Amino acid sequence: MDVSRVAGLIREAAEAEILPRFKKLSRDQIREKKPNQLVTDADVMAERLLTRTLTDLLPGAVVGEEAVDANPALLDALHHPGIVWVIDPVDGTGNFANNNPRFAVIVALVVDGVTIAGWIHDPVPNRTVIAEIGQGAWRDGTRLKVAAEVPLPQMTGSVKKRGRVADQVLHVARRGSAAHDYLDLVTGRQHFAHFRKLMPWDHAAGVLMQQEAGGVAAMIDGTPYVPVLHADGQLLLTPGQHSWDQLAPLVD
């Protein structure tokens, strides 16, 4: 697999279908597919283009967020042997629809239930992070590493429900894009993230990146995250095991 070629296809899709619509969406190009869940023409068109170009490059099944919304049975592909492209065409659609640049494209390549490569492309600054299993996480030729472990009062992170963790750490927030949370983790801009909604297009690529950048990613019971098995539950990502052990009782 030429991971750079995939990154190029993702950039091309963003330049063709996403960026031309950013800050230019009309009301009829933004819809609510479920309560508090938006979809735009950019989501739909980018996913269609990526589905075609990625399967032309490497044939396999596709689990795309918008296609699964229309046909949930497509998720079953992750439960069978073979190649599966997992696509989130616009992660952070709410931000995108509200002219906030904190959105991204996420693509993961899952083979026989294992994520072997992942890409997160941030279209506005045109930056892409790539991870391959056993090969590290990279951006523009620079190998990425998670932040160093620090004491709880110095930690910053992303959580949806503040709970007890907010009283123990320096700062917590959630700003509408799992992709950007992962980018912040693997570039050392934040120490931890906690998620409760675990759709594979949001997390398969990012978990691989976190691990390849030297961090810890595990379900709240300590078991590994597996895109085939986990659509619900709690996922905690930290720089190291000591941080994970400290944070897990606070976010659970």
Overview of this structure, please?
By secondary structure, this protein is α+β, with helices and mostly antiparallel strands. The chain folds into 2 domains: 3-143, Fructose-1,6-Bisphosphatase, subunit A, domain 1 (Fructose-1,6-Bisphosphatase, Chain A, domain 1); 152-251, D-Maltodextrin-Binding Protein, domain 2. The chain has 8 helices and 14 strands. The strands form 3 sheets. A 7-stranded mixed sheet has the order 3-4-5-6-7-8-9, sandwiched between helices. Strands 11-10-12-14-13 form a 5-stranded mixed sheet, with helices on both faces. Helix 1 runs antiparallel to helix 2 and helix 6 (178-186) runs parallel beside helix 7. The termini are far apart. InterPro entries: Inositol_monoP_metal-BS, Inositol_monophosphatase-like. Belongs to the inositol monophosphatase superfamily. Keywords: Hydrolase, Magnesium, Metal-binding.
Task: Note the overall shape.
Answer: globular
Distance between the termini: 38 Å
Question: Helix coverage percent of residues?
Answer: 25-40%
Domains, number: 2
Determine the CATH superfamily of the largest domain. Answer: Fructose-1,6-Bisphosphatase, subunit A, domain 1
Class from secondary-structure proportions: alpha+beta
Question: What's the main sheet like?
Answer: 7 strands, mixed
Strand content: 25-35%
On the 0 to 100 scale, the average pLDDT is 95
Q: Which spans of ≥5 residues are poorly predicted at pLDDT below 50?
A: none
Topology-level CATH name of the largest domain: Fructose-1,6-Bisphosphatase, Chain A, domain 1
Task: Enumerate the strands of the largest sheet in spatial order, edge to edge or round the barrel.
Answer: 3-4-5-6-7-8-9
CATH class of the largest domain: Alpha Beta
Instruction: Please give the radius of gyration in angstroms.
Output: 17 Å
Oligomerization: single chain
Strand/helix succession: HEEHEHEHEEEEEEHEHEHEEH
The total beta strand count reads 14
CATH architecture of the largest domain: 2-Layer Sandwich
**How many helix segments?**
8
Protein name: Inositol monophosphatase
Keywords: Hydrolase, Magnesium, Metal-binding
Family: Belongs to the inositol monophosphatase superfamily.
InterPro entries: Inositol_monoP_metal-BS, Inositol_monophosphatase-like
